[in-house]
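ESCALATION

Customer reports they have been waiting on this structure for their group meeting. Please prioritize. Original submission:
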Amino acid sequence: MYKIKTTIITVISAIALAGCAQTNVNINVNTPEDETQESVGLANPWHDYSQEAAREENIRMFVAPEGAENIHWSIMDPEEGAPEGEGQLIQLQFDLKDEYSTLSFTARYQYGAPDDKDISGMYYDWTATDEGTLANWGEGHMPAKFYRYVGEDEMADLCTWYDLEIGIAYSLSVQAPDLDGFDIQAIAESMYLEDPNEFGCGPTDFLQYQSGVTEFDSYEDVISHLQEGQGYAYINVYGYDGEMLAVAEQVFEADHSAADMSLYMLEDGKPVQVSNVYGNGSAFPIRLEDGIIYSGDNHTYESSFMNPEGGLMVKDYINDGVNDGSGNFTGFLRDDNNYDNDKDFTGGRKEFDELIAARDQKPIIEFTVVGKDGAPTEHKQAVDISGCDTFTQIVDKKLEPGMAYTNAPLYGDGVLLVASGAFDDLDGHMAAIDAEVYIYTDDSIAYAGYAESGGTAYPLAEKDGKLYSAGNHFVTKYAVTDGKLAVMETAGETFDTDGNATYYYDSDDGGDYSDLEQNEAKKIYDSLWEEYSNADILIFDTIK
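Update from on-call: job pushed to the front of the queue and completed.
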């Protein structure tokens, strides 16, 4: 890794030589348009912050460049309705001076922001745009975008970049009457924090935040700090010699998969946190095949492996441009864990969809769930039905906006299924992948159990009084018996690191199927899949 040689004073001097003829000009433009100023009746969403606090939030923060003055850190109030996992917007303002002028800069970063989110607050009709690569950041291979606005009385420059490995958006902006000859790229490169331990090592993932522990003696020590319902898995990743430990804050009950995970490796015999990996909900869990980690969602294809120098490295990254409205397919592909043979993605919708379809057939990473005293965790009832005598009362009084419900002939006069949410199955129906089941008893309403599928490709279904759930590699049939939702049959397949499938089956008939022949287990698995495929998707109503 190399460090930029050009000093900040040299950069500012270049601006002056390019035509900034004013003497002692103080360009006070360090507040982008979305920063609300304090005024009567309007609260300022920005609050003072510190470099040390910023360091606790983000191990890959930036710092003010050498020679900066009037340095000020601030943090914005949480955005209303922000997605879970999206951090607060953090801002660094500073001035760079020389004998001719002062330029005021605003730098921002936001952990967990989508890669297409504009955090800069700069809303210009840009005159020119360009793309390039930042030195220092991303081992000197960080893609960046550059924007310039040229108006009658002012100019503005903006640089944005995104750390795919840990999901952080960055921006750096400046406005001035004249920016001819100015290179914002050099400033962005000089802001890289080369020594992440300069301000002390703070927590870098959910486990370290919740436990307050940042140093561990062994993988087992890391696991001991997981809380009930969280999970872990030992995995082998291409580019690292030995097992790595993946830990997940949320593990989906249906198939023990996870959409987010933190990755640890051993360094000098002690675990160190390498990176965080993100899918998108139960429909897009994290997968692993041949040492390659697969993540992303229906608009993003991403894969990763280990850099020989020790960090997690993006192997392939492709975006279809839907989220940013461009509709343009952009990204790159790597054959190996080096930067020597990067290839731009030149395909279109067909090639992108083929990659997504192939990814969705990769084996999921199955996590071991941590429970009390090591016991498996169970779903916790989400709806308080106290005071309700009818299903209608539950729906009218207890369900919150966004939740969904339906009735199904699973028991007696029918049951009420309550889902955490519903989605359009593209056939005009609102379907669901999870549901709590409620039944009428002789004198009250009772909670019977919970079922969950592995994603929106596998909505809950019903046929002949039986409830079905499924995932990429499992299918389960339920029945309500003696007032409880019970698994009648479940079957699935798991894969080893070479892609070889092992089939399993279990039933409530009391039989021992642990030694079932593989060909017979596969037949039952295929048969249950056929049953599920012929069942009727349950249609839910959503609470407004």
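Sent to customer with the following note: The chain has a mean pLDDT of 83.
Escalation resolved.
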